[in-house]
C-alpha cells in the first residue's frame, strides 16, 4: 500500500509537471513538483543509510517518467535526480547535523541550483548527439542559456523552498511526530 501511494504521488507530480503546472508559473518559473518530492524523499528516507538500493526506486522511477514525458534526450532527468540524491545525502551527513528550518531552506536552495546546473550540463552534452539524429535542431547547435534563465532558476529555487518547507513540516507533523522531536 505504501509503494502504491508513492507511485500515485509520483504519477500525479509528473503529469502535473509536464502538463498544466508550468502554465501556472510566475515570471516564467514554477515550483518543480518532482524535485520537491525527491528532496523530501531523500531527507526523510536517506537520513540513516544511502547504501540501501531499495530506497532508490522512487528516484529512478521519477527520472524515467520525466524522461518519457519530456522532449529532452532520454536519461537527462534520471541522471540529474541521482546526482541530486548523492549531493543532498552528502550535505545532510557532512554539513547539516540536524534538519531544521534553516538547513531545510539551504538544502532546498542548493538542491534546486545543483539540479538545474546538472540539467544544463547534461542537455549541453546530449545536444550534439541529438542534433546528429535530427531530434533537436538549434541554429548554432548550442543550448540557449541567458540571464533570464538564471533569474528563472533563482525564482524556481525560492518556490521550491517554500513548497518543500510546507510539505516537509506537514509530513513530519502527520507521520513522524516522535522521531523528529
From TrEMBL:
Its domain of life reads Bacteria
InterPro entries per the record? Cell_shape_determining_MreD (IPR007227)
Spans through the membrane: 26-46, 58-83, 95-114, 150-171
Report the protein name in the record: Rod shape-determining protein MreD
Keywords of the record, alphabetical order, are: Cell membrane, Cell shape, Membrane, Transmembrane, Transmembrane helix
Indicate whether Cytoplasm appears among the record's keywords.
Answer: no
Q: What membrane topology was assigned to this protein in its record?
A: Multi-pass membrane protein
Single Gene Ontology BP annotation: regulation of cell shape
Identify the Pfam families for this entry: MreD
The entry sums up its family as follows:
Belongs to the MreD family.
Q: Which GO terms describe its cellular component?
A: plasma membrane
Question: Where in or outside the cell?
Answer: Cell membrane
**In terms of one coarse class, where is the protein primarily found?**
membrane
